[in-house]
Amino acid sequence: MSTQELILESAYRLFARHGFEKTSLSMIAKEVGISKPAVYYYFPSKEALFGALLEAVCSEIRFGKYFPLASFTVDNYKEQLTGCGLRMIGEQRSDPHYSLLMKEFMIQSTREESILSAMMAVIQTYVEGFHELLRHGADLGIVQGEDLRAKAEQLTMIVDGIDNYMGLGVAFDYERLWSYTVEQVLR
Fold first, then answer.
1. Which PROSITE patterns does this entry report, sorted A to Z (predicted)?
2. Which residues contact 168 (CB under 8 A, 6 or more apart)?
3. What pLDDT is recorded for position 167?
């Protein structure tokens, strides 16, 4: 791993654990095993590092990674939609820092327009991605063609809600909730 990647990886954990305000570049440098000026070589400020981390996370959680349209066929559409969502839930659940960091991004989005814009862009890619996926399902004859936009927004809200509630430690049966939502959307 490059030094820049190590800095981002450490920042991921520390911003999740301590939040933006309480995480210092000194803490990050210490965890990486480099000097604070070395961090400045890669990132001119804590805000720039936080922004780079946001960009990396947004790239990693892109819709197509979890719901690849080309893999949805007439024979597997429902199982694929359910399975892709369950995989995403499993990945989120297995990373103790992910939901905490996403909450920190949300908090900082109330203070910084560029962070809000990045978060809104991710949400919009999910709405558009689900909308396209549902149109594909309608073309295959699996999804009823009415209210596809509302259904896409519903799926997006469920994905986001699951992420938020898992981050709070709420003990819901997220797999069952996702499967139920898919059933409702495909009716």
1. HTH_TETR_1 (PS01081), HTH_TETR_2 (PS50977)
2. 99
3. 83
pLDDT of residue 49: 98
User: Which residue in 125, 36, 163, 97 sits closest to 133, CA to CA?
Assistant: 125
pTM value?
0.92
CA distance 65 to 5: 21
Give me the residue label for tokens 């720039």.
48
CA atoms within 13 A on the CB side of 16: 19
Q: Where do the domains of the chain lie, and which CATH numbers do they carry?
A: 1-53 (1.10.10.60), 61-186 (1.10.357)
Cβ(178)–Cβ(87) below 8 Å? no
Indicate if the pLDDT at residue 34 is higher than 90.
yes
What DSSP state is assigned to residue 34?
Answer: S
Q: For residue 113, give the amino acid letter.
A: E
**Distance from C-alpha of 6 to C-alpha of 26, rounded to nearest angstrom:** 14
Sign of CA dihedral 66, 68, 69, 72: negative
Q: Quick one: pLDDT at residue 1?
A: 86
Cβ-Cβ contacts under 8 Å for 174 (sequence gap 6 or more): 89, 93, 162, 165, 166
Cβ–Cβ under 8 Å, residues 122 and 61: yes
